[in-house]
Specification:
Order of helices and strands: HHHHHHHHH
Number of strands: 0
Number of domains: 1
Oligomer: single chain
Shape: globular
Largest sheet: none
Structural class: mainly alpha
Distance between the termini: 37 Å
Helix content: over 70%
Length: 202
């Protein structure tokens, strides 16, 4: 296994990740962009101040082990990213609270038991997607369009988005904040119901 501290993304790793998402290159690229947007939203809904960096960290962490993942993982790829995002979020909280300053820099994919199907990542993925679908169509469009671009491009995108929707920059942020809060509450309720159902099943 590669030394995590010296790992750098290689083009072959990225290409294999895309192939894993979809055999068609264009479709894979669209899935990758959609996945990144949803991961940013995942962290934003949890009030993380570095959502884009955390989304990148999540994808990179899977990419570090892409050969092992492709060979051993069974099922749709997306839930695995949400499962890794769950652990990245826990690390983020630990870092912010300084509970464990000596925490390891990386998690092993094997530690995440990636062959499990009923896992935290799948639950969070399902809840996020379900909660997005419960939003009125206008809110769905707004929140997904808001996260359409990454990094530098997002500034220009959000200026255009504000004009299209008739919002000032601040008003747009307020609207997105309200939608995120609505999603956050919905996700919490969904996860609580899921946990309750699991306990009753046992």
């Amino acid at each position: 296994m590669r030394n995590m501290k010296t790992w750098e993304m290689k083009e072959e790793d990225f290409n294999r990740l895309l192939e894993w998402l979809d055999i068609n290159r264009e479709t894979a690229a669209r899935k990758y962009e959609s996945l990144h947007r949803r991961l940013v939203l995942f962290f934003d809904c949890r009030c993380c101040s570095e959502s884009e960096d955390l989304a990148d960290r999540t994808i990179n962490r899977v990419m570090r082990h892409i050969s092992d993942v492709v060979d051993s993982y069974v099922g749709e790829p997306t839930p695995l990213f949400y499962k890794v995002a769950h652990y990245v979020h826990l690390e983020y909280l630990d870092q912010r609270k300084k509970i464990d300053p000596t925490r390891p820099e990386n998690l092993s994919i094997s530690y995440l038991s990636i062959n499990e199907t009923d896992d935290e990542g799948e639950k969070q993925h399902s809840c996020l997607e379900a909660c997005l679908l419960r939003l009125p169509i206008e809110k769905q469009k707004l929140i997904l369009q808001y996260y359409r671009e990454d990094k530098r491009a997002k500034i220009a995108n959000r200026k255009v988005l504000g004009k299209v929707w008739g919002y000032s920059v601040n008003a747009l942020r307020i609207q997105v904040y309200r939608i995120r809060a609505e999603l956050y509450d919905c996700i919490l309720q969904c996860l609580e119901k899921s946990t309750s159902s699991t306990l009753k099943g046992n």
